[in-house]
Amino acid sequence: MFESFDATILARIQFAFTVSFHIIFPAFSIGLASYLAVLEALWLWKKDEVYLELFNFWKTIFAVAFGMGVVSGIVMSYQFGTNWSVFSDKAGPIIGPLMGYEVLTAFFLEAGFLGVMLFGLNRVGPKLHFLATAMVAIGTLISATWILSANSWMQTPRGFEINDVGQFVPVDWWAIVFNPSFPYRLVHMVLAAYLTTAFVVGACGAWHLIRRTAPRRARKMFSMGMWMAAIVAPIQIFAGDMHGLNTLEHQPAKVMAMEGHYQSHPDGAPLILFGIPNSAEKRVDYAIEVPKLSSLILKHDLNAPLAGLDTIAEELHPPVGIVFWSFRIMVGLGFAMLGIGLWSLWCRYRGTLDSNAWLHRAAVAMGPAGFVAVLAGWVTTEVGRQPYTVYGHLLTKDSVAPIAAPAVGASLLAFIIVYFFVFGAGTFYILRLMARLPRDPTPDLDEGPIRTAGAAIANPHGGHHGH
Length: 467
Description:
single chain; two-stranded antiparallel sheet; disordered C terminus
């Protein structure tokens, strides 16, 4: 059934599918590990048991997400040997050590302290247990550092030479690790992980506030999630802008695709808000645009000229439609997160953070927003790099293994079936865990009178909807 397909396209789809499943778990576990460290630090500092209760609640969810992230990462890495062996051969002298450093420093650190964090509180004591939690959080950040360094080198390669057999060989490891796009991309990704976790925690707290199942714990979760959203969202927008300027300098074709600029604009380029990219006619149909705003954002000058894709050979154009829309999804969700954060600040100022039902519903609806934004951001950066795997040096079509399309198609089909069953079940289990926040041990008098009699009248079978 796959005879008519192109092996390179199928290999790209397979890698995109597996990496999309993988990235949502590290994006969550990076932020959640830091959140757990904050919860335990607050418990040790304030001696308030609610922080320990929330720590125990979220550590189980972290364990499941961490496990699924490890499994999906292992599966993804096999493709370097099966589908992308030519890339592995050529870029292996650089990518291989970077991935190895991630295992030796980050993964071993996480694995070494994870068991203590999950099961050791009553065995090693609070202070040593907090050290273990902090080490797991630091390990997730070190892991992100090495992975982003490897990927950023593929985006902005530096510090290498190409030998007689076409391999990239290192000549300056400092230049390789700290390549031009690495600092921007690392900050952008870590902030994205923190925002993703903040909105999951906030949505969970809002859900339980709506259901009134555990008001005290839910209020604490919701408040912490909204503080994080309000603080990090504007920082992330600024970091994203700096990342965009760096991309314009080193990968201009990607920015042209993001902006939908098929043609050059010598007297100031418009910001196209929405439209339908038409690569055949080299224009954006039905464009809704703001004149000269793109030049102002990218060059800080209304009349600054901006080059378009017409200055680049057509075979080197990235797929404009995908990059154009994924970028808008990411940016749109970023500003929606900022809006929720500002709304929460206003409600906090007015004293209605715990009682504003519309804010709670909006927070629940925005719970998955971080994951979608992370996926859209990775689609933008990876598809925007095409047609290269190592930008400017190694084309994707020259990186694929000599493998037949039916073989790639069969494994892709198997991945789709297995992933949806296995990770679908895992995600469902995480959602079940989030929905089962234990009730507060004592009635929360701040919530008003306890409506036991009303519940008994409304429900002759006893209890109420929260049970």
